[in-house]
Design brief:
Layout lengths: L4 H10 L3 E12 L4 E16 L2 E14 L21 E3 L9 E16 L2 E8 L31 E11 L2 E8 L10 E10 L2 E10 L2 E12 L2 E12 L5 E12 L4 E10 L9 H4 L3 H4 L9 E12 L2 E10 L5 E12 L2 E11 L11 E10 L1
Antiparallel strand pairs: 1-2, 1-19, 2-3, 3-5, 4-5, 5-6, 6-7, 7-8, 8-9, 9-10, 10-11, 11-12, 12-13, 13-14, 14-15, 15-16, 16-17, 17-18, 18-19
Length: 372
C-alpha cells in the first residue's frame, strides 16, 4: 500500500498547500521512563470548482524516541474502507525501534451543493454532541478523554447529506464505512437539529457495528450560563440496552478572562466495584459500542484563565466517583505571532493501583505550532 505515498507527494507539488508544522516531544513517566519526539507536517488543500469543493489533508511524521512512535491512535482507522500503510519506515516493527516515519491521509473528500442540499463524499471529519467531557451520541471518531492531540478530528470514510430547514435547523443523513465497506463494520444515521423555545435540540437515530442507538441533546442559555443535557440508549445485537447521559453547566466571568464548566456523566454499562472492571470490559458496549469508561458515575470539571491576551492556562479533571481515582491535565498556550504558538502541559492519573485512573502514567508534553 506504500504506492499511495507517491501520488500524495506529487499532489503536494501540484497544489499550493496550506498547513501546520508541529515539532513536539513527550516524556512518559512510569517504572521505565520513555520519551519520544516528532516533527508533524500537515499539508492541506481546499478548492472550489463551480458547485464542487474538494478537501485534502496528508500528515507525515518522522519520530524518534525510546521507543519511537509505532502509529497513531487506533481510533483513526475505526471507520475507514482502506488506507496506505501508516508506517512508512521501518517496514517491520519489534517495539524497540528508535526512529520511524508515519503518515495519515486524513481528508480526501468532495462536496457538491444542490440548491440547499450539501452532499459530501469521501474522507471527512464528522462529529456532534454538546458535552464537554464524554459525548454519549458522538460514536464515529470521538477523542478519548484527556487526549493530547485534539487539533483535528480524525477523518472517516463517509457519505453525508445535510439539508437546512430553517434558521439553525437542519436534517442530516449519512453512512460511514469500515474496513472493506463491510456492513457489520459500518454505520448509518439520521439526525435532525432544530431551534425552539430558545433551545438547541438534536435527535439522532443510528445503527453502527450491529448496535442500534437513539440519542438526543438539549443546549440552552440559563441566565449568564449555558447548560446542556445529552443522552443515548444503545442496544447491541442480542444484548440488553445500555444508557449513558452527560449534563453540565459552563460560564465565563470577568469579560471571559475566566471560564469554567462542570459536568456529570452516567455510564450505565459500567460497574461499581473496581474488581469487576476487567470482566465487564468484554461486554458488547465496550467491544463494539464505543464505551471505554469502566465505572458508572463520573464528575468532570475544567477551568481556563486568559492570563494575558497571548497566554491561556487551563486545567481539567475527570473524577471516578466509584473508585475515587482522577484523570487530570494542566497546561498552557502562548501565541508567539499571528502564525505560531507554543503549548505544553502535564497529564496523568491519581488513585490506587486497582482503580481506573491510578495506573495512568504521568505525561509531559511540549509542542510548537507553525501555520503557513
Amino acid at each position: 500500500m506504500r504506492q499511495f505515498v507517491l501520488p500524495v507527494l506529487l499532489a503536494s507539488v501540484a497544489f499550493a498547500f496550506t498547513g501546520v508544522f508541529k515539532p513536539g516531544m513527550q516524556l512518559i513517566c512510569t517504572d521505565s521512563t520513555s520519551w519520544n519526539s516528532y516533527l508533524s507536517l500537515r499539508l492541506m488543500d481546499s478548492r472550489r470548482i463551480g458547485p464542487l469543493r474538494t478537501d485534502l489533508a496528508w500528515v507525515v511524521s518522522p519520530t524518534t524516541g525510546n521507543p519511537a512512535l509505532e502509529g497513531a491512535n487506533a481510533n483513526i482507522s475505526r471507520f475507514r474502507i482502506a488506507d496506505p500503510d501508516e508506517r512508512i519506515f521501518p517496514e517491520d516493527w519489534n517495539g524497540n525501534e528508535h526512529f520511524s516515519v508515519l503518515q495519515n491521509i486524513d481528508r480526501l473528500s468532495i462536496r457538491v451543493r444542490f440548491s440547499k442540499l450539501k452532499l459530501t463524499m469521501g474522507r471527512q471529519a464528522i462529529f456532534w454532541g454538546v458535552s464537554k467531557s464524554i459525548s454519549p451520541t458522538d460514536f464515529i471518531a470521538p477523542f478519548p478523554y484527556g487526549a493530547i492531540n485534539t487539533d483535528y478530528r480524525a477523518g472517516v470514510d463517509a457519505v453525508r447529506a445535510v439539508y437546512p430547514v430553517g434558521m439553525m435547523s437542519e436534517i442530516e443523513a449519512g453512512g460511514v464505512f469500515g474496513d472493506g465497506a463491510v456492513i457489520k463494520k459500518s454505520g448509518f444515521w439520521l439526525r435532525t437539529r432544530l431551534y425552539a423555545l430558545n433551545t438547541d435540540i438534536t435527535v439522532l437515530a443510528a445503527e453502527f457495528r450491529e448496535n442500534k442507538l437513539l440519542g438526543a441533546s438539549l443546549n440552552r442559555a440559563i441566565g449568564g450560563s449555558v447548560g446542556w443535557v445529552e443522552s443515548a440508549v444503545t442496544k447491541p445485537e442480542g444484548e440488553d440496552c445500555c444508557y449513558r447521559l452527560s449534563t453540565g453547566l459552563e460560564r465565563s466571568f470577568w469579560n471571559s478572562i475566566l471560564y469554567g464548566f462542570v459536568e456529570y456523566h452516567f455510564n450505565q454499562p459500567g460497574v461499581l466495584n473496581h474488581n469487576d472492571y476487567l470482566q465487564n470490559s468484554t461486554q458488547p458496549a465496550y467491544t463494539t459500542g464505543g464505551v471505554y469508561l469502566m465505572a458508572e458515575h463520573y464528575l468532570a470539571t475544567g477551568l481556563s484563565v486568559t492570563a494575558t491576551p497571548l497566554l491561556t492556562v487551563n486545567a481539567s479533571g475527570l473524577f471516578n466517583m466509584n473508585d475515587y481515582s482522577i484523570q487530570f491535565s494542566a497546561g498552557g498556550d502562548y501565541s508567539l505571532s499571528d502564525n505560531s504558538s507554543v503549548s505544553g502541559g502535564i497529564s496523568g492519573g491519581l488513585g490506587s493501583e486497582q482503580s481506573e485512573f491510578g495506573s495512568l502514567p504521568t505525561n509531559l508534553h511540549l509542542n510548537l505550532f507553525l501555520y503557513f
